[in-house]
Write a structure and sequence with these properties.
Strand order of the largest sheet: 1-2-3-4-5-6-9
Structural class: alpha/beta
Oligomer: single chain
Strand content: 15-25%
Number of strands: 15
Number of helices: 10
Shape: globular
Bound molecules: zinc ion
Amino acid sequence: MKCRLAAFAVMSIAALPAVAQQQDFSKVEVKAQKVTEGVYMITGSGGNIGLSVGKDGCYVIDDQYAPLTGRILAAIKAISPAPVRFVVNTHWHGDHTGGNENMGKTGALLVAHENVRLRMSTEQFMAAMDRKIPPAPEAALPVVTFADAVTFHWNGDEIRVYHVPPAHTDGDVIIHFVKADVVHMGDVFFNGSYPFIDTSSGGRIDGYLSAADRVLAGIGERTQIIPGHGPLGTKADLQAFRGMLKTARDRIATLKSGGKSRDEVIAAKPTADLDAKWGGGFMKGDTFTGLAYDSLP
Ligand SMILES: [Zn+2]
């Protein structure tokens, strides 16, 4: 257990996007980027926000942290004066759901996979951060939950929201704007960096691979992809991410099935040649290797 904690000590808790611990939000700038006609990506601090605007009203995917709600709503208002009617959460983490209570109070209907409501309504323990997360207030909980999929017919588009088997967490959903040709993948896609596999929430590296395959099978060459973290991406970016995961997964799985312990696998540095390209985010090669190891059978 000691070695395990030491491996995590290299991560700065404040740098983890899932944790808002003592973060100073005063300097955060919330910016909107046009993805295509009627669809935007909003960045500030925390998970990337998706926005659809049009005749029916604003439709929002994820809402970062509570202290940013005013700035997020101002950024939306600069694009459309219509109220936010729906907020869909890609998963339960606080950097994606922290604004739920505020958004709900403005009249938005909160929608998520049933495991998002379940995890938000009960105390969670994130082993990777050695941290307890208290239950969210009732007003922050998704009002509409679903098990598999739900489709919104909204702003002239068909917005398909579907659950994928646990990758980042057990409540992951992908949102596909069919007509706009845009996909929001939440933290099932970190564009350009190793993902955080939240094994305490059921996350698994094999789920990352199958989710990427499912998305790749359903999109075209020109589809734009909003990742949970990182810049707006393309199909090629997702293919590169998937390729990196497959390489790392196979190496770690071979070591694990060969009888190597967690510490031995980390010490073997199976991601050494990948770290320069993918280890520049908050998730370093050693931590990623440990979490991938934990999630493998
Ligand atoms: Zn997350």
